[in-house]
Design brief:
Blueprint: H1 2-11, E1 34-35, E2 41-43, E3 46-48, E4 61-63, E5 66-68, H2 71-78, E6 82-85, E7 90-93, E8 100-101, E9 111-112, E10 119-120, E11 123-124, E12 128-131, E13 137-143, E14 151-159, E15 163-170, E16 175-182, E17 189-194, E18 201-207, E19 212-216, E20 221-222
Antiparallel strand pairs: 1-4, 2-3, 4-5, 6-7, 8-20, 9-12, 10-11, 12-19, 13-18, 14-17, 14-19, 14-20, 15-16, 15-18
Helix pairs in contact: 1-2
Protein name: Copper amine oxidase-like N-terminal domain-containing protein
Organism: Paenibacillus zeisoli
Pfam families: Cu_amine_oxidN1
Length: about 220
């Protein structure tokens, strides 16, 4: 059922919430269709009302015996990430084929391009988050996927001492998406985390005296 909804949603690309200017140069074909607010929806057994990005109710369109649903509203209801590329006039649903490095959306201190700090096990990662302060401490940084991606593939390593607690959370709801302990012996670990529809993430680690935290920002990525 989910795939059918997504397919129908993709056909309704014109209803995607975006600026009117996006379609100024598009090759559009005029049709006669009808809004049908009488159609009701349920998602996983619960009533669902399609809405635009401002929270206003949207009615499905009926055309030639088929019902077309708003892409963004359905993607949000089904937990499928959505993004739009105005240059290619392409809507992306779910994971992207190519990974997008988190480097541009990472915030916080301890980001560095210093070659003395960006190398781990003989490989230079060019741009990293590296907390090498002293003492027992908590450390973290923000990520801003802005609802555009389905998955986060995050690499992290404990240097010197094990990381007692590591987690990634949805900062808007304070919901932890992944919790783990990172050992030095683990090497560089990669976590696959479902982030569909999430706007802002918080990545956190509790560090011991003599322990450092290494996160490559170029090989950690969204999809």
């Amino acid at each position: 059922m989910k795939k059918k909804w997504i397919t129908a949603g993709a056909a309704a690309a014109l209803l995607m919430s975006t600026s009117a200017g996006v379609y100024a140069g598009a090759n559009l074909q005029q049709i006669q269709a009808f809004l049908d607010p009488s159609i009701k929806f349920k998602v996983n057994g619960k009533p669902f009302q399609p809405q635009n990005d401002k929270g206003a109710a949207l009615a499905p369109i009926t055309y030639n015996g088929s019902t077309y649903l708003p892409v963004r509203a359905i993607s949000n209801a089904l937990g499928v990430a959505i993004d739009y590329d105005g240059k290619t006039n392409t809507i992306f649903l779910g994971e992207k084929q190519d990974g997008v490095p988190i480097a541009d959306s990472a915030g916080g201190d301890f980001r560095t391009k210093d070659p003395q700090l960006t190398t781990y096990n003989g490989k230079d990662y060019k741009y990293v988050f590296f907390n090498n302060s002293s003492g027992r401490r908590s450390s973290g940084f923000m990520l801003y996927p802005k609802g555009k991606y389905q998955k986060l593939y995050l690499q992290t390593a404990a240097v010197g001492k094990d990381i007692e607690e590591f987690f990634v959370s949805d900062s808007d709801t304070d919901t932890k998406l992944k919790i783990d302990k990172v050992n030095v012996s683990d090497g560089l670990k990669t976590y696959e985390i479902d982030i569909s529809g999430l706007q802002t993430l918080y990545v956190h680690a509790d560090l011991q005296e003599g322990g450092n935290w290494f996160v490559p920002l170029t090989t950690s990525y969204y999809k």
